[in-house]
Amino acid sequence: MIGKISGRLDWRGGDTVLIDVRGVGYVVHVSDRTLAGLPGLGEAVSLYTELLVREDLLQLFGFPTMLEKEWHKLLMTVQGVGAKASMAILGTLGAEGVGRAITLGDQRAIQAAPGVGPKLAQRIILELKAKAGSVMAMGASLAVTAQADDTVLEPFTPAAPVRKAANAANAGPSRAAFTADALSALMNLGYGQGDAAQAVATIAGENPEADTATLIRASLKLLAPKA
């Protein structure tokens, strides 16, 4: 499985790019939004990738962040959503916009993507609404942008082991952890720290047993513009 490509941008097409990785060229399909954010020809570029395997076809799809890649994979679990439709939705809304639209049930936002009709938009919301919170809760770590330096080398530094207190080894997530994760996800979506913190605190006060996904969904409804 090819999960990430780092190289030099050799060519741009309508919805594809050619990335040269030490003499080997990879054709990668990208959304309009991703294409617009790429550097100039000849410059270093890095994309997270998802490989689509069919009987007579291999296609690489590229994403600037792991969060967008995860949304692509999740969107394609919906019947009727192929790679083309998924890329159109992400190209129109971005990863954060997709999460917000699904959580709030904003069918019109999803329909704004080329080729997505009302029935498909409704199906996406119905099938993914319960899953959106968990993906958004991971947003703070998954939204890291792929980077490539001029040498096109990706050094790896193992993460230091996390030390846990002996008496907390078997403890589950705390309420503080749920609220912190929900606040991080909301700020990653573009909400100000003050507004996000107030919304999370309000929901947590009303529902002390709420987990991260529940806090995010309820806070987004609270923060949504009133009609």
From TrEMBL:
Compartment list: Cytoplasm
Name the GO cellular-component terms: cytoplasm; Holliday junction helicase complex; Holliday junction resolvase complex
Enumerate the UniProt keywords alphabetically. Answer: Cytoplasm, DNA damage, DNA recombination, DNA repair, DNA-binding
What range(s) does the Helix-hairpin-helix DNA-binding motif class domain occupy? 73-92, 108-127
Q: Which residues form a coiled coil?
A: none
Domain of life the protein comes from: Bacteria
- Matches recorded under InterPro entries: DNA_helicase_Holl-junc_RuvA_I, Hlx-hairpin-Hlx_DNA-bd_motif, NA-bd_OB-fold, RuvA, RuvA_2-like, RuvA_C, RuvA_C_sf
Q: Where is this region: Domain I?
A: 1-64
TM segment ranges: none
SMART domains, alphabetized: HhH1
Any one GO molecular function term: four-way junction helicase activity
Task: Please list where the region (Domain III) is annotated.
Answer: 160-227
Q: Which GO terms describe its biological process?
A: DNA recombination; DNA repair
Protein function: The RuvA-RuvB-RuvC complex processes Holliday junction (HJ) DNA during genetic recombination and DNA repair, while the RuvA-RuvB complex plays an important role in the rescue of blocked DNA replication forks via replication fork reversal (RFR). RuvA specifically binds to HJ cruciform DNA, conferring on it an open structure. The RuvB hexamer acts as an ATP-dependent pump, pulling dsDNA into and through the RuvAB complex. HJ branch migration allows RuvC to scan DNA until it finds its consensus sequence, where it cleaves and resolves the cruciform DNA.
Q: How does it assemble?
A: Homotetramer. Forms an RuvA(8)-RuvB(12)-Holliday junction (HJ) complex. HJ DNA is sandwiched between 2 RuvA tetramers; dsDNA enters through RuvA and exits via RuvB. An RuvB hexamer assembles on each DNA strand where it exits the tetramer. Each RuvB hexamer is contacted by two RuvA subunits (via domain III) on 2 adjacent RuvB subunits; this complex drives branch migration. In the full resolvosome a probable DNA-RuvA(4)-RuvB(12)-RuvC(2) complex forms which resolves the HJ.
Family to which this protein belongs = Belongs to the RuvA family.
The domain comment in this protein's record states: Has three domains with a flexible linker between the domains II and III and assumes an 'L' shape. Domain III is highly mobile and contacts RuvB.
Name of the protein this chain belongs to: Holliday junction branch migration complex subunit RuvA
- Native source species: Tabrizicola oligotrophica
